[in-house]
Write a structure and sequence with these properties.
single chain, alpha+beta
């Protein structure tokens, strides 16, 4: 699940439980996401798989932000890429597959 919101204190309660990062195209906007899809696997595998997915997004964010600031990527490409990545990772439901194949 992904949300875009202005970075305000009023949104704090609504964003509880989400991972939050600044939108590299607009410092007044945040991107909030969490991986809450149903997964197969043990509880430990599922927790680890969710952390792998979250780490993947933050790594992509770092790279994309650098490319954006170096004008190697447009704002539209950045936004579309981040949304596509989060949406794609949200479709993964097998914790063991995520652990073995997503890095």
């Amino acid at each position: 699940m992904i949300l875009r919101a202005e970075n305000t204190k009023e949104k704090g309660e609504a964003l509880r439980g989400y991972n939050i990062m600044a939108d590299a195209t607009d410092i007044h906007t945040i991107i909030a996401f969490r991986f809450d899809q149903e997964m197969t696997g043990t509880e430990k595998q599922i927790d680890y798989a969710r952390s792998i997915l979250t780490d993947k997004v933050f790594k992509a964010y770092e790279i994309a932000s650098t490319q954006l600031s170096n004008k190697q990527m447009t704002a539209k490409e950045y936004r579309n890429g981040m949304i596509t990545l989060i949406d794609g990772l949200s479709q993964l439901t097998d914790a063991k597959y995520i652990i073995d194949h997503v890095r």
